[in-house]
Write a structure and sequence with these properties.
5-stranded parallel β-sheet; Rossmann fold; alpha/beta; 18 strands; Helicase, Ruva Protein, domain 3; 3 domains
């Protein structure tokens, strides 16, 4: 229920306003002067203040800015018996929602309250969403305890508050965009747009238009002006993924933006000024591309002000259980399944895999496993066949002459063949179902 604070030294009028406001379903608090009203604000979460202008201990116009400074989401509607333009202008300048005259504008009070409440709710919702986005893309949500990922996080934290351009290097799926978002949200530009673009997703002509925008008539199909990514970012951050795939001809145009903070739209004759920060990412060897004249050397050095190397997942295998559990939680909630844990055998398979697709591949594997799972625990049989087979082969190399290992591997292969069907597995192994379950538990195959 929304809370309304009415501040007025005329008790009869204050009581009347309170009664009318309560009938509209609002919770009403009352105060007879500014001092009493400020005390109420210290204790209560007020949404809207209905306040008389002339009060025994001061003019309400003078305290609007202070109230808004401490309580930015509170809206203030001023009521005056003697309206004058100077007070009205000053009230609105200080942040009042509206300024109305008692008697003449009585019918406006309730509709105004509704509009003020709507604005308060919208502001709070926006803040909530911004907080959620900030939390989602913060450094604390980058998982891992291995030295290599902690080093990358520490470097990113140091560069985030600056305006330096950042170059993120790493294989596909190592989380470069997640790092870019975290850097943006830890910077002074956090409340401004974060615009991301994959340079390998467009042809040269479309990429130029997407980044720099174009004027109507610049080319066939350009029916109206289009703002490019850089202009849309305003004073925020532009993230250019796969920067190594940017056509050589466009690299000089991007270089100009980095050097002069201005650019020319496709088909335009005038420059546009911008104030953006660039974060670029690539899985290519840009230094090699520079030597082979595939990437401009001057652009490379402009982007390479601060470089962060993101480690592949195969070099941080101790982080796999934590990452897998995180994705398990997400996908079990998303699919509304009862899967909550991973068996020892399942985790062993994950940690023995090379993960050429890195975190993105792990995420996809866990999603698939959750969909296939029939119980509350993920088992090796829920993994893709190629991943299971690869791990079985590696285990043979490690334990080929150990009898228990051979038996474990044989059972695993048969389970794989029957796609986890225990009854069929027991039949093929020529053992009792009870014996099979005991073996599965003994070897951690569940």
């Amino acid at each position: 229920m929304s809370k309304i604070l009415i501040i007025d030294d005329e008790e009869k009028l204050r009581n009347l306003l309170a009664r009318i406001t309560r009938l509209e379903g609002y919770e009403v608090l009352e105060a007879g002067n500014i001092k009493a009203g400020l005390k109420v604000l210290e204790k209560e979460n007020v949404d809207v203040i209905l306040c008389d202008v002339k009060l025994p201990d001061g003019n309400a116009v003078d305290i609007i800015a202070d109230i808004k400074g401490k309580h930015p989401f509170i809206e203030i509607i001023l009521l005056t018996a003697y309206g004058n333009i100077a007070d009205g202008v000053m009230a609105m300048k200080n942040g009042a929602f509206d300024y109305i005259t008692k008697g003449d504008d009585n019918e406006r009070i309730i509709p105004l309250l509704g509009k003020a409440i709507d604005k308060v709710r919208l502001q709070k919702r926006i803040q909530q969403l911004e907080t959620q986005v900030g939390n989602r893309y913060s450094f604390k949500n980058i998982l891992g305890k291995s030295a290599s990922i902690l080093e990358a996080i520490e470097l990113a934290k140091k560069v985030a508050p600056t305006n330096a351009n950042v170059l993120l290097l790493g294989e596909t799926g190592t989380g470069k965009e997640v790092f870019a978002q975290a850097i943006h949200n830890a910077s002074a530009r956090a409340g401004r747009p974060f615009m991301a673009l994959n340079c390998s997703s467009f042809s040269k002509e479309l990429l130029e238009s997407e980044i720099f925008g174009h004027k109507a008539g610049a080319f066939t199909g350009a029916l109206k002006d289009k703002r490019g990514l850089i202009e849309e970012a305003g004073s925020g951050t532009v993230f250019l993924d796969e920067i190594g795939e940017m056509p050589f001809e466009l690299q000089s145009k991007l270089l100009r933006v980095l050097e002069t903070s201005e650019f020319i739209k496709v088909g335009d004759t005038h420059t546009t000024k911008v104030d953006v920060r660039f974060i670029a990412a690539t899985n290519s060897d840009l230094q090699k591309d520079v030597k082979e004249l595939k990437f401009r050397e001057d652009l490379f050095y402009r982007l390479n002000v601060f470089t962060i190397l993101l480690p592949p997942l195969r070099e941080r295998k101790k982080d796999i259980p934590e990452l897998a559990q995180y994705f398990l939680k997400i996908f079990s909630a998303k699919t509304k399944t009862a899967v909550q844990t991973m068996s020892k055998g399942f985790l062993e398979h994950l940690q023995q895999h090379d993960w050429k697709g890195n975190i993105r591949e792990l995420k996809n594997v866990i999603e698939r496993a959750v969909i296939l799972a029939s119980g509350t625990e993920l088992a090796p049989g829920n993994l893709p066949l190629d991943l299971q087979a690869t791990n079985l082969d590696s285990q043979i190399t490690l334990s080929a002459f150990d009898l228990a290992s051979v038996e474990k591997l044989h059972i695993q292969r048969v389970l794989l063949h029957t796609k986890g069907n225990k009854t069929e597995t027991a039949r093929l192994l020529n053992i009792g179902l009870t014996t099979l379950y005991r073996k599965i538990e003994e070897y951690g195959l569940s």
